Amino acid sequence: MTILIATRNAHKVQEIRQILGGNIEFLTLRDFPDAPEVSEDADTFEGNARKKAGELAAWLATEPIAKQRDVFVMADDSGLEVDALNGAPGVHSARFAASDKTKGNSPDAENNAKLLRLLKDIPLEKRTARFRCVIAFVPVRDVNKAQIFDGACAGRIQLEPHGGQGFGYDPLFVPSGFTKTFAELGESEKNKISHRAKALAQFAKMPL
Ligand code: IMP
């Protein structure tokens, strides 16, 4: 079996390989420089994951690799949902600080600063939030047949950033049952409880 992981992020590939391992050949977008750029403009994580995996699988179906049996595309979309902000930043997590008219993502520090600004009058006990990750898995031989896997990690947004590891909103997020942020806990602890780990664990239960 061959899985194209719809990312250029080496971190994600490593995490997926670690959890799924086995006899799977993993490819990434770095192996397909001509792959189309898919814009993530759906209004749900699932919509974006389905769109990314579906469009890439349709493109891959026209490539020589499609002659192999058992070629799949895996795409994920993830982000942070804050209850006091009615689920924002949600699908806009990567570009939260930028205006919706600009296309690019915003630096992590700016996204974190905006989040703290919007929550400045909200006490810690009301700063409940969760990271969510949705994975879409699509066979190249039948690009309309997506399987969906969902993972969430609940926690709280802190009053100020702590810790230097990780990325994105990690310095502001303390997962439930812990006293340290994801950025203080570090990768190996985070990977045991993260939204992505939970979605991948769902995926790994599927008989391949
Ligand atoms: P994507 O799914 O890779 O597009 O991630 C979207 C955005 O959500 C990232 O740019 C981060 O801002 C945020 N995000 C997703 N997962 C995490 C995480 O594990 N830690 C911190 N931020 C995250």
Query: How many discrete structural domains?
Result: 1
Ions, cofactors and other ligands present here are: inosinic acid
Helix and strand composition category: alpha/beta
What is the name of the CATH architecture? Alpha-Beta Complex
Protein model, in words:
- With 208 residues, this protein is an alpha/beta fold.
- Strand 1, helix 1 and strand 2 form a beta-alpha-beta unit.
- Helix 1 crosses helix 6.
- The protein is globular and about 55 Å long.
- 36% of the residues are buried.
- The model has no long low-confidence stretch (mean pLDDT 93).
- The structure holds inosinic acid (IMP).
- Inosinic acid (IMP) binds next to strand 3.
Short description:
With 208 residues, the chain is α/β, with parallel strands linked by helices. It has 6 helices and 6 strands.
Highlighted features:
208 residues; alpha/beta; Maf protein; six-stranded mixed β-sheet; 22% strand; binds inosinic acid
How do the helices and strands line up, and which of them pair or pack?
Blueprint lengths: L1 E4 L4 H11 L4 E4 L16 H16 L10 E12 L25 H11 L9 E12 L7 E11 L15 E3 L6 H4 L1 H7 L1 H11 L3
Parallel strand pairs: 1-2, 1-3
Antiparallel strand pairs: 3-4, 4-5, 5-6
Helix pairs in contact: 1-6
